Batch of 2 targets.
Target 1
Amino acid sequence: MSTAFKEAIKAGIPQSLPPKRTVGADVNRAPKRKDILRPGEKRLALENALRYFPKEWHAELAPEFLEELKIFGRIYMYRFKPNYQMKARDISEYPAQCTQAASIMLMIQNNLDPAVAQHPEELITYGGNGAVFQNWAQYLLTMKYLSEMTMKQTLHMYSGHPMGLFPSSEEAPRVVVTNGMMIPNYSQPDDWEKFNALGVTQYGQMTAGSYMYIGPQGIVHGTTITVLNAARMKSSGGPEGKLFVTAGLGGMSGAQPKAGNIAGVVSITAEINPKAAYKRHEQGWVDEITESTDEAIDMALEFQAAKRARSIAFLGNIVDLWERMVERNIHVDLGSDQTSLHNPWAGGYYPQGLTYEQANTMMAEQPEEFKSRIQSTLKNHVTAVNALVEKGMYFFDYGNAFLLESSRAGADIMDADGELFRYPSYVQDIMGPMCFDYGFGPFRWVCASGKSEDLDKTDAIAQEVLEGLMQNAPAEIRQQMDDNIRWIKGAKENKLVVGSQARILYADSEGRTEIARAFNKAIAAGEIGPVILGRDHHDVSGTDSPYRETSNIYDGSSFTADMAIQNVIGDSFRGATWVSIHNGGGVGWGEVINGGFGMLLDGSDDAERRLETMLLYDVNNGIARRSWARNKEAIFAIKREMERTPTLKVTVPELVDEDILSNLDF
Ligand SMILES: NC(=O)c1ccc[n+]([C@@H]2O[C@H](COP(=O)([O-])OP(=O)(O)OC[C@H]3O[C@@H](n4cnc5c(N)ncnc54)[C@H](O)[C@@H]3O)[C@@H](O)[C@H]2O)c1
């Protein structure tokens, strides 16, 4: 079995044409994409797809690929999906010339594991369109290249397409990934539809196209921190008995009810897709499920009265739920939304008055009518939210482009001056000042042995390191450290591991480095196997996104992307095993540039040297930029880091006296 697996990987595109496959009805399939290509462009898409295969197969494959393009709007090359089980294996099982390449193969397979990926047949990991590859030929070729790669080569990935292995050096990253990089004027949503259908670009989301998605654990942790702090900051008393209302039980949004329970609130999450809602219910990620708005509300009121942290799924449209809450004059403490509004016209957001199936048909057959219904639903959405906010609800945008798309739809979402949104993004109020500006972000690791004992040992190591650092931590960051020590203590109990043996926790520059160093020592001592480090792109330094990660940058630079580009270049020569840079993560195509890295720790002195230099830069690049933007938490953090690291020298801003400016005539 294992030999057959190795041989299949090494073969790449198989020697003989595999039989045509049909995909089972039980698989969660990607929505049919818009039929956007003109006939001449369809021909081009076909030519592009066929260039992966020997000439002799073209006559058979051409009509099949054209059929895929016509039915699904894309050519996925279903026939070439390999027969072996798609999952992260023990790193020693990969046929590789170097362990660094094997670590990347492991992470690629994890991102395509049906237990992890949202639409595994279409190579989509999350977010409806977050792709690892555009088609199965790219997967097969990439794995083959990785199996051949030595420590003196680098594989260059163009939006899922492996351009090839190029000579480099041991110090270079083994893989450089770019996803969705466009000439800036060609970054409108329809440009993605067109160029993705042509097979020349893809939407890598944040972690899908960089092979760093670890299942819903990452988002559960981030959402727990957000909901907990929203409850702490924005309403009196603790989270107990507070009501949190939101939407989306999909790939990432499905974490909301679980995070609500961990944070200690009562939650209602609306979901229009029955498959997604029942999947989360069966998995135990949401406690109750109902198709009635009234029943959902009544249950919530009961749980609130009993101060029981419980989660309810409402199977229906979120706007119907909000409107019913207004009618019944319900007091909601915290409100948000996690429908996929980064992708509003292609299945990310559903209009009122249609079932899920009816809406999907309209989306493909009457896209203009669909668009207009989405816009009027968004207007109703905002009207209902505004009414509840007037009665004391705290509403925040949770990084899904809700504010942006509502404003584009003409909803009543702007403040009195018409310049700013009425509501903050969670980064402006919570995540930015409490976490990112101090360098806290979603650090993660994967135990490459695949053993749960290794994960337990790394949990214990991380806890010990954080408890040690806590002893001398300044008051400004004690709450963050305390929340993460509690998280790591309870992490195993929360049973969040899906796919690879992975863990996430928010740590700052010092925390990440010290944890990584301790792992490397434990690997050297033979206590654990190799460990792959990484992070979400949703972090301090990796992402420029004016409506999300950098929404709390107020010096005008939030529409620049220098930080993300500097970060990927800076990480690449400081020791990352692979680096990636993407256009269009969580908030939409053209709205964000985001990057990440992966790093293999193998217990060597080289790994220690690499982790020290790279992690320091990877966190402090963003703190320096946030400090330059005059964010006071970041000024504190960068000054502290410069004291700890004398070779770090960062320009710190001089703050102008308010009086000087207010006395001038602008
Ligand atoms: N803030 C963060 O840290 C963060 C992290 C991940 C994702 N996101 C963003 O959150 C959004 C959701 O991500 P996801 O991976 O869960 O996407 P997803 O597409 O898997 O899930 C969204 C869900 O919303 C449902 N939905 C759409 N319109 C609805 C409506 N009107 N009423 C009820 N349900 C509706 C869909 O059926 C779907 O199941 C994306 O825009 C993503 O970029 C934010």
Note: Residues 112 and 120 are 6 Å apart (CA to CA).
Target 2
Amino acid sequence: MVVDPHCHDHDPEAEIWVGVRTPGTEVAERVTVIESTLRDLGHDVVPAREFDDAWLTHVHSAEVIDHLATVWDRWVAAGSPDLGAQRVVPYLFPSAELLHGLRRRLPTALHAEVGVYCYDTMTLIGPASWRAIRAATHAARSAVDLVASGTPTAYALTRPPGHHATRSSYGGSCYLNNAAIAAQALRENGFTRVAVIDIDAHHGNGTQAIFYERSDVFTTSVHVDPGAGWFPHYVGFADETGRDAGLGTNLNLPLAPGSGDQTWLSAVQRAADAASTFGATALVIALGVDAAVDDPESPLEVTADGYRRAGDALAALGLPTVAVQEGGYHLPTLGRLVGSALEGLATG
Ligand SMILES: [Zn+2]
């Protein structure tokens, strides 16, 4: 288990969900309960090391990185907290219809600029968010280092999560895409073909988008059907299979609400089979456990035993594996769910 204490520092304080300010579920206590449960289960703890953030442009645009690194200080300088805006939150989005084909300019007003990069109202930024965002990337890259030097499987306790972040935008409580960063870092460590298997309850839209035109990284996601009314609503459908050189290297497996272990595990097996057919030489698991039966954020009803068996199925690929933490929001069971998945990975 690779940890970075700064992953606690991000305090979004709230999310604005359908117009309502709620406390939000992506809280620092998530990493506390996962880390303490995994320690109790006997997992080694490896501190993340520091990395040069300039490398992050291999996955994300320099613009969004600079935005994330500076927006809080600029928000304060603009006086927004004094006006009652205690967190950075967008209010206006440059949709395709608004622009009508015209060039998208960068707005002069910071409160308008936020909507260029942030695509929803749930993904707020506070005073120490950047410290946690970059710490999560360091944890992911440290896990890659372990695997590149011969450790068969490494788990990064990344928070905030990442799989909803695209190359140049953030949302869905994600800012930079830790799973994509792990995949790219594996590529640069000599693994020629990398598969990302995303078992978070929600579609890994950011990871899909980042690699959509690439033939060297296969992306697959098992998630609740966006067509049934679930986030991210606009993407995650079965007919999204990649584009140009990446055609055929994306597989979406949307599932009906209430699917439960058997249906979910069949989809995880399909994802694993597809990664094998692709000829993957290394694996990234986007390990969200919010498909669990008690989780408030999805209706997929997977059990802890289901997560253990998913770990088994993915371990059977026999690939060097980096698992990065994505969602999972039911604090009383969160640690045990992650522990079950990692148990399956270790013994499968
Ligand atoms: Zn999720």
Note: Residues 156 and 324 are 5 Å apart (CA to CA).
